[in-house]
Amino acid sequence: MIGYLQGELLSADEKGLVLLTPGGVGYEVAAPTSVLAKLPGRGKEVRLYIHTQVGEKAIDLFGFLEADDLDLFRTLISIDKLGPKKAMAILSMFDAAHLREIAFREDVTTLSTVPGIGPKSAKQILWNLKDKVDKLSHVTGKVASAPQGPQGEYLDALAGLKGLGYGEDEIRPMLLETFDDEPDLDAAGAIRAVLKKINAARS
């Protein structure tokens, strides 16, 4: 099985890339858009962690820039009826930290925005993902862990901050960190703590 490739980037499109190894072999590698967006220019060196999928008609390679991303991909495809194509679509839209939160919130609506995943499939995926969420460790530090406070307080605080006009991408990491530091906070206390963080960051 191929687990790692290093070589020259020959080409890339919306589905993947072609990597030329020093031995003169060119490999077609599928990759999520989050990986493709970070690739260097044509002719530059690329190093990829690889998942090899052996099928009846083909051997498919899926590439990732970090080992943690590869682990996340394998976590997703270990879920029943969630194949590589859907896993790639999910990873093209969400990083590990966001997936942890989506699973924590059982956010069917957000996961359903992934092309090819409807509400019924999203609900099934999240039900399975919650059992595997500890493996989603792509982001290091406190922000990567699920909040330790009550789920309702976290969701209420998130809704309250969004109601004040703050974007979810801005407040989500701060809110996760706040609950990790002080698990017993209620929603109002968490909102005040996050507002202090925002003001400190902007001052």
Note down, in words, how this protein is organized.
- With 203 residues, the protein is of the alpha+beta class.
- The protein is 46% helix and 17% strand.
- The chain is built from 9 helices and 5 strands.
- The protein has helices spanning 33-36, 67-77, 84-93, 96-105, 108-111, 119-129, 151-163, 168-181, 187-202; strands spanning 4-12, 16-20, 26-30, 45-54, 59-64.
- Strands 3-2-1-4-5 form a 5-stranded antiparallel sheet.
- Helix 7 (151-163) packs across helix 9.
- The relative contact order is 0.09.
- Mean pLDDT is 83; it is low at 137-149.
Radius of gyration: 19 Å
In the predicted model, the low-confidence regions spanning at least 5 consecutive residues are: 137-149
The protein's oligomeric status is: single chain
- H and E order: EEEHEEHHHHHHHH
Number of strands: 5
Helical residues, percent: 40-55%
Number of helices: 9
Structural category: alpha+beta
Distance, first to last CA: 52 Å
- Tell me the strand percentage band: 15-25%
How are the strands of the largest sheet arranged?
A: 3-2-1-4-5
